[in-house]
Amino acid sequence: xxxxxxxxxxxxxxxxxxxxxxxxxxxxxxxxxxxxxxxxxxxxxxxxxxxxxxxxxxxxxxxxxxxxxxxxxxxxxxxxxxxxxxxxxxxxxxxxxxxxxxxxxxxxxxxxxxxxxxxxxxxxxxxxxxxxxxxxxxxxxxxxxxxxxxxxxxxxxxxxxxxxxxxxxxxxxxxxxxxxxxxxxxxxxxxxxxxxxxxxxxxxxxxxxxxxxxxxxxxxx
Amino acid sequence: xxxxxxxxxxxxxxxxxxxxxxxxxxxxxxxxxxxxxxxxxxxxxxxxxxxxxxxxxxxxxxxxxxxxxxxxxxxxxxxxxxxxxxxxxxxxxxxxxxxxxxxxxxxxxxxxxxxxxxxxxxxxxxxxxxxxxxxxxxxxxxxxxxxxxxxxxxxxxxxxxxxxxxxxxxxxxxxxxxxxxxxxxxxxxxxxxxxxxxxxxxxxxxxxxxxxxxxxxxxxx
Lengths: 221, 221
Fold this sequence. Notes:
The structure is a homodimer of 221-residue chains.
Chain A: H1 7-27, E1 30-36, H2 42-53, E2 59-65, H3 70-76, E3 82-86, H4 95-102, E4 112-116, E5 133-139, H5 146-149, H6 151-156, E6 159-163, H7 175-185, E7 191-193, H8 202-220
Parallel strand pairs in A: 1-4, 1-5, 2-3, 2-4, 5-6, 6-7
Helix pairs in contact in A: 1-4, 2-8
């Protein structure tokens, strides 16, 4: 449904998002919101990020899904605090859901909070959660034409991860066209080629992210 | 956003959907609505379906996307009438969009109308377009856990296509678990394994669909 029919909902969401952001700043927590299609590899990217950064930072995860606890269980199995949000029918997370999830965490002990949004290239783009950066993951099997069809999500992202990069030979994916169109929509966003389940290409992404975490810690000090 | 905040919209949509359905019945047109994640292979499935059935039936296509005419152009290149709907921000098609698109087609000359919904596993499930069957496509790279996370779309579908089946060896996809969970959610829906871009497994799907087209033609006679 169109977001313009629900201006009041967006305004209420944005007010709560600002409160979340203030709360995060007080504790020096950097918060990243991962958005992608279903099955693009959001949870795998989180696991790869945890593996790369857990020695340096205390990490927690909020998992958003319509139903099930599948993803939170995957994260918890690695000894990282994970809160599952089930949205019922909603195709994205909202700031009040994040607030309730955050209330179950001890922010003072966390450096990096990773939010996995509901698998969707449309709905999450309009909702500020109080995060510091939205990051968009596209997986190679989805095809290089997605920026034409879903331009907004590429525009609101501060970085783009091109995941399942190891399957480039299996699919008809034109990487140079993809990078050109993303660059037109969003000239400042880096594009990180990655195969999260294999750990390939995770370093560049982890460096970008840790630079942001350091800046957030500096801000709180 | 939650659909229950917009009950009036759903009721208006359903009334127009009934009108669409009556219009389709008068002309003996069978209408199928394809739903899937971005990049699951909706357009490829349509092209494979056209290749399999164009000698028997007159086919037309309605393409739904947030933006761009990419898909309609792909279909038109094969000499099949294709109408592109751009929803702007909306994450699904609605019955009034279908009606406006249908008004540009000559229904009397069409046996099978294929609607490609916006790439999304959430929003399209609640909106009746006046179609005779919703069909859901999941692609192997998305992973076998999707029925846990997005149960509703598997419940409203009359058939499920498991696409990109040729990449089964590349991804960690548990087909028996997938079929078991889908069977629990929706015991009557057949699951068609397919590799649409290669034409593999298209016959069984095309047979199921043509049985439905024949029934619709019979009803109009």
